[in-house]
Design brief:
This protein has 18 helices and 13 strands. With 435 residues, it is an alpha/beta fold. It folds into 2 domains: 183 residues, Rossmann fold, CATH 3.40.50.11720; 195 residues, 3-Layer(aba) Sandwich (Rossmann fold). The strands form 2 sheets. Strands 3-2-1-4-5-6-7 form a 7-stranded parallel β-sheet, with helices on both faces. Helix 1 packs antiparallel against helix 2, helix 3 crosses helix 18 and helix 15 crosses helix 17. It is globular.
């Protein structure tokens, strides 16, 4: 009865949300495929790569979770080369990142959590193992996997400060769901304690570490900085500041600091990478209002951008290219109470990284990075300006901070291998080399 009521509520919600999604998707040219796949209606041949193979299904809701899953995807591919790897997403941006992961055989939009949709999709995909990245617990999906004896394991699991109080209020409802999950590979001891408090059986919980620390050199851009400057149409010599994954309310503050730096006579070029590309029009309108010259990443390169100008990124999946060019990286979602984004990608490229005070989704990582670099968190715009001046005046400080961040990555690496070891009891596949 509870699940029937859940289906009914979800259907009623869908009557409101699906038309909105369809209109939005039509504007972006992605609606039909997304809606059909979410209801388990796949184009002919869409799942052919899965036929006759053991399937491991990873689900990563959006961009952050998808990027976090990459090291595990690579480890699974190396360990089980004959398996078919499926990676599902909820958002279009997450799907675009997934499409760029060559180790993945099939990318899907995650099914709507209605019982009949879930049954259909599981019958078509036929996974041997389902891995849910971080914390994306869909009751009908987990229930029907359990009924079909398909093990579901939470990987890179975390319970954020913001989510934990909400989960605690409904832990009586969560407890039966937790008992249908076979394993919990958590990022930290704190996450392990929290998931246990929410009803996960303690004997199923392991601390395997954070997959984000397993970023490796295979993900680095193959192009040299000079090649990238030519590709993006950027001046050969001007230093570059990259503000990545920015949200509404942040670009204005970044631009104000940038204008002050330019007014001080500094040679500098800003690359703005909004977290959500559909906000680009809003960002460029502000640049116009401030009298700044800009160009979109997707636009043809007709003139080289110079100091005092702005490159606005309206594409997906190129963040590491821009970070390679940066002298300093600022990671957004942190000047406004979003909770921050992954700062370790900048450390992978040995770049000093800054972030605002709102890093509650990455509290532990942010603290480690700040300790390793000797700086990182800025509380307000004045502090950002002071630190930017210091970093651009002291090249050796930038270089040392970048190296210290990279060493931090090396010290904490290994979560992918520990997670793989934890998953082996649920995998009947022969490992590579028969080991």
């Amino acid at each position: 009865m509870v699940y029937l009521l859940y289906d009914l509520i979800l259907c009623l919600t869908g009557l409101v949300l699906i038309p909105c999604y369809a209109v939005r998707g039509l504007v972006r040219g992605k609606a039909r495929q997304g809606i059909r796949e979410r209801f388990g209606l796949f184009a002919p041949g869409r799942l052919d790569a899965l036929r006759g193979r053991s399937v491991i299904w990873l689900h990563a809701v959006s961009v952050g979770e998808t990027r976090a899953a990459i090291p595990l995807v690579k480890t699974l591919r190396q360990a089980y080369p004959d398996a078919a790897l499926v990676l599902s997403s909820v958002t279009e941006t997450g799907r675009e990142i997934a499409l760029g992961i060559k180790e993945v055989d099939v990318t899907l939009f995650f099914p709507v959590d209605l019982s009949w949709v879930v049954r259909r999709v599981l019958s078509l995909v036929r996974p041997e193992l389902v891995l849910i990245v971080e914390t994306e617990l869909w009751p009908q999906f987990i229930r029907h996997c359990h009924r079909r004896h398909i093990p579901v394991v939470l990987v890179n699991g975390r319970i954020s400060d913001r989510s934990f109080p909400r989960y605690r209020k409904v832990r009586r409802l969560l407890k039966p769901l937790m008992h249908q999950v076979c394993g919990f590979c958590m990022q930290s001891e704190l996450d392990a304690r929290r998931i246990a408090e929410l009803g996960a059986p303690p004997q199923r919980i392991q601390v395997t570490g954070n997959l984000k620390f397993d970023l490796d050199a295979t993900q680095l851009p193959v192009e040299t900085p000079q090649q990238l400057r030519t590709e993006f149409g950027l001046d050969d010599a001007v230093p570059i500041w990259v503000a990545g994954s920015t949200h509404e309310g942040e670009e204005e503050r970044i631009v104000a600091v940038y204008q002050t730096l330019i007014a001080q006579g500094r040679k500098l070029l800003l690359i703005l990478v909004p977290r959500h590309p559909h906000r680009v029009r809003q960002v460029t309108a502000h640049l116009d209002a401030q009298g700044l010259s800009w160009r979109l990443r997707s636009a043809p390169v007709e003139q080289t951008l110079q100091s005092g100008q702005v490159l606005v990124v309206d594409t997906i999946g190129e963040m590491l290219k821009f970070y390679r060019l940066a002298e300093v990286v600022f990671v957004g979602g942190s000047l406004v109470p979003v909770g921050g984004h992954n700062v370790l990608e900048a450390s992978l490229l040995q770049k000093p990284v800054l972030f605002g005070p709102f890093m509650h989704n990455f509290r532990e990582i942010a603290a480690w990075v700040e300790k390793a670099q000797g700086f990182g968190r800025i509380e307000d715009d004045e502090a950002l300006l002071r630190l930017m001046c210091q970093l651009f005046d002291q090249p050796t400080l930038r270089q040392q901070a970048g190296q210290d961040g990279w060493k931090l990555l090396q010290r904490h690496a290994g979560a992918s291998r520990r997670t793989l070891d934890a998953l082996r009891p649920w995998l009947s596949l022969p490992p590579a080399g028969g080991a």
